[in-house]
Amino acid sequence: MLEVNAVGKAFPVKPEKKRDGVADPREQGKLFHALRNVQFSLKKGVILGLLGANGAGKTTLMRILATSLKPTSGSVSLLGFDIVKDAEEVRKRIGFLSGSIGLYGRLNAEELLEFYGKLYGLTAPVINARIAALIDELEIGSFAHRRIETLSAGMKQRVSIARSLIHSPEFIIFDEPTTGLDVPTAQVILGYIESCRHSGKSIIFSTHHMHEVEKLCDQVVLIHQGANCFHGSVEEMKRTTNCVHLDDAYLTLTGEAAPHAARQAMRLAKTGTGGRA
Amino acid sequence: MRGAITIFLKDLRETLRNRRNLVRMLLLPVILLPFAGHYFLSFTDKHREDLRKTTLTYAVANEQALPDLVKLYAEDDSFQRVDVPDGKVEDAVRSKKVRFALRIPNDAAAKLKAGEGVSIEFLYFQSDPGEAVVKDRGTAPLLSYSARQRDWRLVFLGFADEGTRAKLLDPVSFTVVNTAPDRERVGYGLGGIIAYAFLLVCFMGCSFTAIDLVAGEKERGTLEILIMLPLPRLQIVLGKYFVIFTVGLVYATLAATSVTAWLLYEGSVASSQVREVITLIKPLEVFLLWSMLIPVTALFAAVVLAISVYARSYREATTLTGFANLLESLLVMVVVIPGISLNWLWAAIPVSNLSLVIRELIRGTLDNYLVVATVFALTLALGAALLLFATAWFRREAIIYSD
Q1: What distances in angstroms separate CA A140 from CA A37, A118, A149, A151, A159, one per listed residue?
Q2: Burial B32-71 (b: 16+ CB within 10 A, else e)
Q3: Rg (CA), chain A
Q4: Which of A156, A181, B213, B349 has its CA 20 to 30 A from that of A264?
Q5: Torsion of the alpha carbons at A139, A144, A149 and A151, rounded to the nearest 10
Q6: What's the CATH number for A2-230?
Q7: Banded pLDDT at B403 (limits 50, 70, 90)
Q8: Secondary structure class of B57 (helix, strand, coil)
Q9: Has residue A125 got a pLDDT over 90?
Q10: What was the pLDDT predicted at B178?
């Protein structure tokens, strides 16, 4: 379904963004290599968690998969289409939820979903049926007729997710869908992601919450400084690093485990328990 | 084109739901423009009228040198003498203690008696053209005194008859007749003002909308979603372009209607010439005038759209639009520069050509329709080129992701 082959992405470095004295191995000459040789594949009906620190390259990778950025090297095949050559075909089949909510404040949820439905070329009856289904699944009904600018962050996020799913995409990309949300709203969203697995959709979602990864993800890709340093299941990630908890495995793989190990040692000294296997 | 139409309808709906947009749309062209014009005209008229009626203060240096001249001023109720030391009259005028002053030479009476010429200084302060009234009123007794002296001399020389004196002084008399019709004369200034107001309002209408629809959407993250849809970029650009064009045209039409209504009102209460000029404009010319707003708006919408696509942020778009507004104002200003008329050279200069066409339409002097057609075609071609530039620029990754 998804084949990511040695994908790289470089951006020109703006002089004003150069940081004196801070060495970043990804900055080479006038280019900043946001992604280097990223490689993984994904099958139908699989949920993949994309992990990595802020600035690691997760959003760049997701934007490449969503066709808004072109890779500078390598290739990506999604549902049998090349994301550069057949970008329009890919766009018809993917749903993308960006990190920013990106909604039109002066429309209400129904109007917004209708607008995107039309742009995806859906007919009026299909749009109406999809709107009704999404309003039900994401529990939007109580505020579907309110202007989006008057909604809370959680309500907006639900509308945003509905927007990305209006055309029933086969492949879904969610960039940090639960960041900044209260627990009940996050639960609704995670529940919806879970339900997508059963309908045979593939999902890539980025997150910093390890419990979400443990609960939902069949596979994990860990991006560190633009390169993927791990690809496999959650269990494999723990086994490889010899850790009980996923966050310890994450820190071990990214080489940031030392401070944490110190905290672990302190906790162990106080309580006599530790997380590391 | 279905995508472009869907984007157009959605953006138009959002624009009309923005209360600020509606307030701007009504406030600027419908209310502010006619009110500003009304107060500008009435203030100018009132200032002139005040100067005509007000008592002018004056001072005299060396009054003993020509007492009969000083008496003439003293007898005029519209002047009021202020005592100022002889050496300080110029300072008194400069500091506006008095409106004008006379400086009479010591030997004035002796020279007049000897049949020689005398030069009297009339001092006044004029930095504003409206103050010319002070000079006209203040020198009137001087001119009358000079005429009286001249008559006495002529009588002394034996020309006692007034008719003979007149023929001697003005052997050739002439009457000035301006054959230019009122519409052409008054329409020159009026047309310039209207062209300037229309173009300015139209540009502002386009720029408010473009900045919000493109640069604003970049910042709000909605443009990123749009470019991930299975839509050609041209359709996104066209959808936005037609909203900017529609709003700009509404602004310009509202401005045109309210300014015309205001001018009719001004004409009925103040100058009959303005009213006459407006009533002389035929319906076809009104339609032509309005139809000139179409290429104007088409061009401005393309300019501000290209700027908004090019700009990396809302702030940058606002700054760049400010520069474009300045450039547009300079190009429109040719309508108020004397001696510039619509010819092939000016027809080739964007924006200036449109403002000249509008002025000539109001003056009723537009007869070269080939030039008008050229201006129309050039403007639309320039608009199309800018639209293509905006579309090409829109395809760049860096435009969406400035970070």
Answers
A1: 41, 20, 15, 11, 7
A2: ebbeebeeeeeeeeeeeeebeeeebbbbbbbbebbeebbe
A3: 20
A4: A181
A5: -30
A6: 3.40.50.300
A7: low
A8: strand
A9: yes
A10: 78
**From the CA of A133, how many Å to the nearest CA of chain B?**
21
Q: Do A119 and B225 touch (CB under 8 A)?
A: no
Q: How many percent of chain B have pLDDT more than 70?
A: 95
Q: What pLDDT was estimated at residue A15?
A: 66
With CA atoms as reference, report the closest residue to B202 among B342, B309, B298.
B298
User: B231 — contact with chain A (CB < 8 Å)?
Assistant: yes
With CB atoms and an 8 Å threshold, state whether B397 touches A68: yes
State the pLDDT at residue B243. 94
Q: How far apart are CA A78 and CA A65, in angstroms?
A: 8
**Which CATH entry fits the domain spanning B57-169: 3.40.50.720, 3.10.620.30, 3.40.1710.10, 3.20.20.140?**
3.40.1710.10
pLDDT-wise least confident of A73-82, A88-97, A244-253, B134-143? A244-253
**Quick check: A67 contacting B, CB < 8 Å?**
yes
Question: Would an 8 Å CB–CB cutoff place A5 in contact with chain B?
Answer: no
- Find the CB nearest A106 among B17, B230, B400: B17
Task: Give dist(CA B175, CA B170) in Å, integer.
Answer: 13
The answer to whether B20 faces chain A, any CB pair under 8 Å, is no
Domain ranges of chain A: 2-230, 233-277
**Of A154-158, B119-123, B168-172, B223-227, which one has max mean pLDDT?**
B119-123
* A150, pLDDT greater than 90: yes
**pLDDT of A270 strictly over 50:** yes
The string of pLDDT tens digits covering residues A25-75 is 788 778 888 899 999 999 888 999 999 888 888 989 999 999 989 999 999
Residue among A88, A102, A107 whose CB faces B221 most closely: A102
Structure tokens at B52: 């005509």
CB B103 within 8 A of CB B62: yes
Question: Could you tell me if A119 lies within 8 Å of chain B, comparing CB atoms?
Answer: yes
> Is there a contact between A10 and A32 (Cβ–Cβ < 8 Å)?
yes
pLDDT of residue A123: 94
d(CA B281, CA B183): 9
Condensed to tens digits (0 to 9), the pLDDT of residues A165-179 reads 999 999 999 988 888
Which percentage of chain A shows pLDDT scores above 70? 89
A interface test, pick of B5, B10, B231, B396 with most A CB neighbours within 10 Å: B10
For tokens 């708006």, what's the residue?
B297
d(CA A237, CA A230): 8
- Residues in chain B with CB shorter than 8 Å from the CB of A116 are 229
CB B126 within 8 A of CB B113: no
CA distances for A178 relative to A97, A206, B333, angstroms: 11, 10, 56
The beta-carbon neighbor of B229 closest among A63, A102, A119 is A119
Instruction: Give all strands of the β-sheet with B100-103 in edge-to-edge order.
Output: B79-81, B56-61, B100-103, B121-124
Query: Which residue spans of chain B are classified as CATH 3.40.1710.10?
Result: 57-169
Mutation pick from B218, B228, B243 vs chain A, by most beta carbons of A within 10 Å, is B228
